[in-house]
Design goal:
The protein is mainly alpha-helical. The chain has a domain of about 35 residues. The protein has three helices and no strands.
């Protein structure tokens, strides 16, 4: 950041030694060191705050994109349970016809989406 050559640094040390004096130079260097540490800490804190804000903004943007894609998929492929289709009502049961309870069970079985079994993992579960 600051391009200081060794000769320039030596010149600054000599001027500080002459102006401040050899007796107070260690106190002055300690004071400058403390303030430099505080300035670096504040800069680090500021930068971490900016990084956090950038991450949150990126996450909000990704969540917005995800919601838009999810809504588009849900419009294109609605779930069977979400469709408000009327269910047929049957009259009195004819001989040999399934009972109302059996008809309701078969309708419920066809209305449920098909699920696929997941093969077991090798080894114990974590």
């Amino acid at each position: 950041m600051f391009d200081v050559a060794p000769t320039e640094l030596l010149l600054v040390i000599v001027v500080a030694l002459v102006v401040i004096g050899p007796k107070d130079l260690p106190k002055a260097m300690r004071f400058v060191g403390k303030w430099m540490g505080k300035a670096r800490g504040m800069a680090r804190h500021f930068r971490s705050g900016l990084d956090t804000m950038m991450r949150e903004a990126e996450l909000e943007e990704l969540e917005k994109q995800w919601r838009e894609q999810n809504d588009a998929i849900m419009r294109e492929f609605p779930r069977i349970n979400d469709v408000n289709a009327p269910t047929p009502k049957s009259g009195p049961a004819a001989p040999g016809a399934p009972s109302e309870q059996g008809a309701d069970e078969s309708a419920a079985a066809t209305a449920q989406p098909e699920t696929h079994a997941v093969p077991p993992r090798d080894g114990p579960l974590p």
